[in-house]
Design goal:
This protein is of the alpha+beta class. The relative contact order is 0.22. The protein has one domain: Roll (10 Kd Chaperonin, Protein Cpn10, Chain O), CATH 2.30.33. It has two helices and eight strands, in the order βαβββββββα. The protein has a six-stranded antiparallel sheet, with no helix packed on it. Strands 3-4 form a two-stranded antiparallel sheet. It is 15% helix and 32% strand.
């Protein structure tokens, strides 16, 4: 089974369907869609991030062999986020019949993320009320 592995500080995005329509439902020609500066889509996978060296490595001599374990500054995007990004910075790829966009982290303008733990807070409050009774 094949799978896509995202490298570096890049993000794999499935573009939002229906972007060829305007807000009032008119179909837009491909030239009009291509001229839009930003686009959105769901984050499907993220790379490990930007490789960095440890601060302790700067004090040592450069010819010494390091531990070999890579360290990364992680990407801000998470799987499931909705990303808004610069269209011109993205690269379109096809994988097993599906079209995806690979976008560098620097081209992402904003992320829409669902609130974490909404259900957990409600459960905790109910448990606390039961304990008080």
């Amino acid at each position: 089974m094949k799978r896509l592995v995202v490298v570096g500080d890049r993000v794999l995005i499935q573009p939002r369907e229906g972007e060829e329509r305007s807000n009032v439902g008119l179909y837009l020609p491909p030239t009009a869609v291509d001229n839009q500066a930003v686009q959105g889509g769901e984050v499907l996978a993220v790379g490990p991030g930007t490789p960095i060296s440890a601060p302790a490595d700067l004090d040592e001599e450069p010819w010494k062999i390091a531990s070999g374990e890579a360290r990364y500054m992680p990407v801000q995007a998470e799987v499931g986020d909705y990303a808004i990004f610069f269209r011109k910075a993205s690269v379109e790829i096809s994988f097993e019949g599906e079209k995806y966009l690979v976008v560098p982290q620097a081209a992402i303008l904003a992320l829409v993320r669902g609130q974490e733990g909404e259900d957990d807070d409600d459960d905790d409050e109910e448990e606390e009320e039961e304990e008080e009774e």
